[in-house]
Amino acid sequence: MPSQRYARTTRCCWCGKPFIKWREGVTSFYVCPTEKCRRRQQRYALGVNGQVVYMPLPRQVEAIIAVLRRRYRWILYGGARGGAKSHFLRWLAYALCLRIPCFQAVLLRRTYPELEKSHMRRIPAEVKMLGADYTPSARPPVIKFHNGSVLELGHCQDPQDIENYLSAEYHLVLPDELGTFEEDMILKIASSARLYHPRFKPCVVGSTNPGSSWVKDRWVTKEVDLERFPYYDPTEYHFIQSLLDDNPYPDPEYERMLNALDPDTYAAWRMGSWDVFEGQYFKEFRRDKHCEVLDIPKEIPRIGGFDWGYSPDPAVMLFAVVLPDGHLHIEKEMVFRETIAAEVGASIVRECRDTGITLSTAWADPATKIRSGQTGESIFETLGRVGVPVVAANHERVNGWQRLRHWLRPNPVTGKSWLTINPDSCRGLVRTLPSLVHDDTHPEDVNRKSRDDHWADALRYLVMGRPAPMEIGKSDHEPPPDSAGAMLREAMRALQPPMGMDRVAAR
Predict the structure, then answer these.
(1) Is the dihedral of CA 90, 92, 95, 99 positive or negative?
(2) Side-chain half-sphere of 477: how many Cα atoms within 13 Å?
(3) In total, how many domains does the chain have?
């Protein structure tokens, strides 16, 4: 029963003891009963006129310390629903504005209704305790403190709204529910966190629930596409996981609401899992099941999948090996940005020559067969001319994704996934495949607006050139051959392209 599975006890993340209520003046707060932990909470409490108005929870103290140490430029506080993320961001801003004269901060939500519901309704009572002045009718709404500090409230409901912040300067930028913003939007707004202060390093402190792939890439796994973001520095990013179990304040009804969710949404919202999220397309993908490093003899021919791109989206080439037991291993990826077709093809040929491997067949997007009005030669023809053995792939999207799902399933005999990926040499594929989401208008398809689908497209072309795993036949039950020669013969039989395929001969 859900009530049995999801029982909760709120405990101190430092010592593990359950929280107790503690009275400070006329107000009660939850604190850790351990004196050392409690004193640490009290050290970062916010007092006004001798009265404590805010007592941070232990996990929130960790976030405050991360801000004050001036080590990180990007701090993320979040992970699951019910962790008091929005509340924390607002009170962090209050505390810094009160303690640092002339401090400038901005608190953001993606839309104005979200800003109003999450923050503006609570601010009047809070600023009254703080002795600040709140002007909700201002554009933007603003809180002014008597020491000259200012906290603005903003949103980015329309793309042009970011222009309101690009010309401003702040010490602190606080995007609430960071995952609802577009990556480029946040990067641009963050450039406004540039005001110098001897006691504070300008930074961005955000909160979010799991579900955003770009947030996960930057803060959680720190696997950013360095070709696209060459100046990304993982040491500037700090993630602090917050869970419902860290927060003793929520109503029990809220927890029961979370307990009623489907397993995937529950894993993200209640447990703070970044591996599954609402709308995820390939929920089957797991790093522990699908990532593996194999030492494969170079004598075995490779096959490939190719998706074309130039700018801003890349061209992607995947190298794969069909193993004698029928399993498919994605061995290596090559990514090209702003590179003409002839140079892409020459690089692929050179990679094969330098590594001593043979590329038997590369299934490519049929759209590459369209002739260029400038050169009179299609990308497909160019690749074939320079020596890449390209074959026109089956372009069916939904059927292709379903074929890929078959490959992501486990072999019923061995329990091992039919498809594995080398995580060291295929970082783009490992990063992007689990981040893809369903298309809003065609739920059976991957979102066509994604900028990270080129790796998956290349893989789709590849697997559509192969039969589904259950169609391979008895090979999945046979033990692997003992000799490299037998392995090679088996692999070459498996690599014969289907009849009727239009293959461009290498010259």
Answers:
(1) negative
(2) 5
(3) 3
User: Cis (ω within 30 of 0) for the bond into 56?
Assistant: no
- Distance separating alpha carbons of residues 474 and 181, to the nearest angstrom: 49
Q: Of 218, 240, 269, which one is at a domain's C-terminal end? A: 269
pTM of the model: 0.79
Asked if 431 and 229 touch (Cβ cutoff 8 Å), the reply is: no
CB 97 within 8 A of CB 65: no
Residues 445 and 452: their CA atoms lie apart, in Å, by 14
Residue 97 belongs to some domain of the structure: yes
- Per-residue pLDDT tens over the stretch 468-484: 886 655 444 444 444 44
Q: Express the helix, strand and coil content of the chain in percent, nearest 5 each.
A: 35, 20, 40
CB atoms within 10 A of CB 342: 15
Say yes or no: 476 and 330 in one domain: yes
- The answer to whether 401 and 408 are in contact (CB under 8 A) is no
Could you tell me if 180 and 293 lie in one domain?
no
Are residue 161 and residue 121 in the same domain, yes or no?
yes
Structure tokens that stand for 194 in this block: 């540039």
Spans of the chain below 50 pLDDT:
1-6, 474-489, 492, 494-507
Do 359 and 453 have their domain in common?
Answer: yes
Q: Domain check: are 26 and 124 in the same one?
A: no
218, 235, 269: which is the final residue of a domain?
A: 269
As given in the structure block, the two tokens for residue 343 are 């140079």
Taking all residues of the chain, what is their mean pLDDT, rounded to a whole number? 88
In a domain, 376, yes or no: yes
Confirm if 451 and 355 have CB atoms less than 8 A apart: no
Residues 32 and 73 in one domain: no
Q: Are residues 357 and 479 in the same domain?
A: yes
The residue assigned the tokens 């979370």 is 258
* 6-10 LR contacts (CB < 8 Å, sep 24+): 6/255, 6/258, 6/259, 6/266, 6/270, 8/244, 8/245, 8/255, 9/245, 10/245, 10/246, 10/247, 10/248
Q: What's the full length of the chain, in residues?
A: 507
Q: Locate tokens 């929130």: which residue?
A: 60
Distance CA 240, CA 63 (A): 7
- The CA distance from 174 to 384, in Å, is 51
DSSP classification of residue 218: I
Give yes or no: residues 243 and 351 share one domain. Answer: no
- Sign of the CA dihedral 473, 474, 478, 482? negative
